[in-house]
Amino acid sequence: MTFGLGRTRAVALSGLDGTLVDVEAHVAAGLPGFTVGGLPDTACAQAPDRVRAAAATAGFPVPPHRVTVNLSPASVPKRGSGFDLGIAVAVLAASGVLPRGAVEPVVHLGELSLDGRLRGVRGVLPALLEAARRGARHVVVPVENVAEAQLVDRLVVHGARTLEEVVRWYREPAPGGLPVAERASDTDNEPDRRPDLADVVGQPEARVALELAATGGHHLLMTGPPGVGKTMLAERLVTVLPRLGREEALEVHAVRSLVAPVGEVARLERTPPFVAPHHSTSTAALAGGGSGIVLPGAVSRAHHGVLFLDEAPEFKSSVLQTLRQPLESGEVVIARAKALVRYPARFLLVLAANPCPCGMAFGKGTECRCSAHDLRAYTTKLSGPLLDRVDLRVHVPPVRPAAFGDETGEPSAVVAARVLAARGAQAERWRGAGWSVNGLAPGHVLRRPPYRLAPSVTAVIDRALDTGGLSLRGYDRVLRVAWSAADLAGRTTPGREEVALGLQLRRAEGTAA
Question: What is the 3-class SS of 137-185, one letter each residue?
């Protein structure tokens, strides 16, 4: 048995940002010992015990000498048990069991059981996206992670069940090299099990607001008594949004890979995500965080999709205020003493609220038992800076029996086709400007040539601005909605009808502009 230096590769993650890591192992004469350096966390620092047991079970025990492992660059924190396989391969290469040249360029990810089995780990997709960007070609992962790894182009994926199997591959190479994992079926397809907008009875004004929200990326507030269809409408918003492109879907699934059970990310679903946290959720659960590894929250899991806050006034005010940064910047920045983690968070916010805590303050309100103090505390939860970022505010009234026979409600496919055409018009309008939908266009751009509208068109909102019924920010948001309404109607510029519609949906339920 020859001793020396062995080297292979792994990936360290900080949020979705990855760093390609050289796993270096040196075996030298001396008292038996096994140390891991390079800023490992507790799970990573415990790798020597797992590697020793797994290697012995595989029939190739770690030599009883001094073993030193370095995870380079040493300044980057290494978290989790996904480095086990790389450490084991590097140590066995250093001890002469494996050919050093064969293992050096290959990325190895996976956790080792004491009996030598490979266990799947989280974060494989973002890790391998970084490995592919850095020029890696081959990767060995547990079989549980094969389908997820195969979502990354330009990588040859090898799935293994045990450390013994990996050792045998390198010691007894096949003519074509390491065996390639079979391609998982239907990795880029998904069954159509989505709900349909045609399921919603009545609610024509809410349907219009929903379509406008999908068209221009406008945030939406729906108010109304319980049971009128607010949740149904929100759940069907993703069915009228354009399907995700491949790069967008990879971003969504990269976030999901960090929090979903191992093996759940197996196909590239193109439907935008729909995330609906409970009103008891914490700040860390909504925005992201954690005491150890900083994990993405609901706002990042809703990236390129819909974040639905049902019973929004029941959320803690401190939790709601965390939405302000991602709504403006499209990302979440989580600061820690030794790290700054960023997660994407470009989502469409949908808020739903009852008219009062008991939900009965509608119509004549005779059944409402809420005090004036309760009502004020309830409604002020959604006032101020957060509500000012919501373009569309619509009241969803109780459904009347006459609506049961109404068959005019369009299915999602019809509405989605209009939204897609309107999105195409926006993409052409804002090409090269840095944004893709009207909801992201700065207000000053819409108030200046060539997008400034004629005074006769904006007269109604000009008067509202003069009388204090509309703030400048509200003015700009009405213009954004008007442009989206024009795109849906196939017009090149908004008219008075579109501007009036934008103002109507801005002022719904008497909320402040």
Answer: CEEEEEHHHHHHHCCCCCCEEEEECEHHHHHHHHHCCECCECCCCCCCC
Q: What is the pLDDT averaged over residues 461-465?
A: 94
Residue 296 β-bridge partners: 288
pLDDT digits (tens, 9 = 90+) for 274-305: 999 999 999 999 999 877 788 999 999 999 99
Which of 73-82, 242-251, 343-352, 397-406 shows the lowest per-residue confidence on average (mean pLDDT)?
397-406
DSSP, collapsed to helix, strand or coil, labels residue 384 as coil
Residue spans of beta strands (DSSP E) within 372-493: 392-395
Residue 261: Cβ within 10 Å count: 9
Structural domains of the chain ordered from first start: 5-171 (3.30.230.10), 197-412 (3.40.50.300), 441-513 (no CATH)
Structure pTM? 0.90
**If you write DSSP's letter for every residue of 93-136 in order, what string do you get?**
HHTTSS-HHHHTT-EE--EEPTTSBEE--S-HHHHHHHHHHTT-
The alpha carbons of the chain give a radius of gyration, in whole angstroms, of 28
d(CA 480, CA 458): 12
